[in-house]
Amino acid sequence: MLDAVTEGRFGTAMKSFAATLSPREIEAVVDFVRIEFMLNGNPNTRYHTAENGWPDHEKYQAAFPFALGQIALDAPESALTKQQRVGKVLFMNACITCHDRARVEHEGVIWDVKAVSFPRNRYTHKNPSASASPVVDSRSGATPYAKHDKAPLLSDLSSQERRGESLFQANCAFCHAMDGTGKNWIGSFLEPHPRNLTDPEIMSTMTRKHVKAVVMNGIEGTTMSAWRSVLSEQEIDSVVAYINKAFHPLK
Questions:
Q1: Which domain holds residue 71?
Q2: Are 28 and 53 spatial neighbours (Cβ–Cβ below 8 Å)?
Q3: Distance of CA 113 to the CA centre of its chain
């Protein structure tokens, strides 16, 4: 233990404290850890003491069940008592800073990339290499969204699918991204996000007929507009064929 604290452990978050603590201080830390946790089995050191600036920690008692993980933070409001709802508000306004989310029943998305502003002028979702005279915006390109504006490389497309590729990348990719994920800058900015055309959970239930109807008529309450006055039915069929080939098979 003395060696671990002094030298650290390569490949882990355990850094060396040789330049921070004296040998005597390192011995004191190791003795404390051995006595407090290994010999006495104490769950943790007490932090909420008057000495640490918590003279009346009991006033937060309503939030304790959330801090201790006894009640999940994402428990339905309808399942909570009035006192528990007060405790949850208290936890969210004060305790969560140090206790993080405590416990939840549903993990949800670990990291959901979301654009917080509309792209600046001269932004293009198109791959600069695909243009003879590309408009370069190095600031927009240096984002986590740029990687989604690369179209899949497909060499075995039929003439219909090739036409659909051209139409999709020139029109649909502005919101759905060139890779069909909807995770480009525009797609991440829009609410609700455009459909991720590569998501097997969603796309496995999709039929060609349904996708064609959506492209033709749009989806009310979203930015998915109707394309029936822009593209011919034959062109829409080509887009659907390309989606089926490039992103996920349709029924």
A1: 48-108
A2: no
A3: 5
